[in-house]
Amino acid sequence: MRPSDYGRLLALAAIWGASFLFMRIAAPAFGSVNTTFLRVFFALVGLAAMLLLLRTPMQFQGKLKSIMVLGIINSGVPFLMYAVAALWLPAGYSAILNATTPLMGALIGFSFFHEALTLRKWAGVMLGLVGIALITTTGEVDLSGQLAIGVLACLIATACYGCAGFLTRRWISERGGLDAKLVAFGSQLGACLFLLPFFGYTLATGPAVDWTQPGVWACVLAVGFLCTAFAYLLYFRLIADIGPLRSLTVTFLIPPFGILWGYLVLGETLTGGFVFGGAVVCLAVWLVVSPSRAAKPAKAQA
């Protein structure tokens, strides 16, 4: 990897780590549904502008419906779940729980997509469960029903991410692939249409919202344009340059940045038990995503 690749990897981790901070500020002020819809709407606008500037042909090759469904699974539902979690969980907690995405992917692949799990990956999954237990039973967050809802929302989000990875391979990659920019745009379009009825219902029947909060609007714009539209393009570019496996290392870098931004901006504090639980989760993720020794000689022989 070139120094510029390391720099982009760190920048992506910092951007995605900041998304939990922005959601933590915006969701309590605007509401989880409103914040999520505005996030995908501004992401859609940003991606549309990029496609126009880059003069990318809007040729979806008959895959637009599949991409839009993927957008619901990979953006609409997970973003809403993280916005719900942001009502109660500190940004650092959500960032650590987001790192369980590869663990969820391994379990979903084994359960529904006929993916084999080695002993090493099983160990990673079990260790990940231990790490989650440590995170949810230590720290300064009150062990209440709201905490449980927040943790469950984060795990639902990571399960959606894990499922979307396999569906992307089945619906997009195995059918000839597609420009990553079009996949990102189509997915946000699907997420936006999915959330639109909920957004309208919340505006009509939900509690009154004070929309005149410049700081909150700055967070919503940042999480839409920067943490979603720009970050997706940066991530897909990294996959093209350094490969998917190396790009997955961003999973390890997001939690430290999420914790750092929460500490610097919101004054969130984390206990030693929570830090230990986060380290256990990162070790579990490494066991799941790192290639096994048996796979390396086979690849070399091929």
TrEMBL record:
Topology of the protein relative to the lipid bilayer: Multi-pass membrane protein
InterPro entries: AA-Vitamin_Transporters, EamA_dom, EmrE-like
Highest taxon above the source species: Bacteria
Keyword Membrane assigned: yes
Gene3D superfamilies: 1.10.3730.20
Subcellular localization: Membrane
Keywords: Membrane, Transmembrane, Transmembrane helix
Annotated TM spans: 36-54, 66-89, 95-113, 122-141, 147-168, 180-203, 215-235, 247-264, 270-289
Pfam families linked to this entry: EamA (PF00892)
Name the UniProt record assigns to this protein: DMT family transporter
Domain EamA residues, every copy: 10-136, 149-289
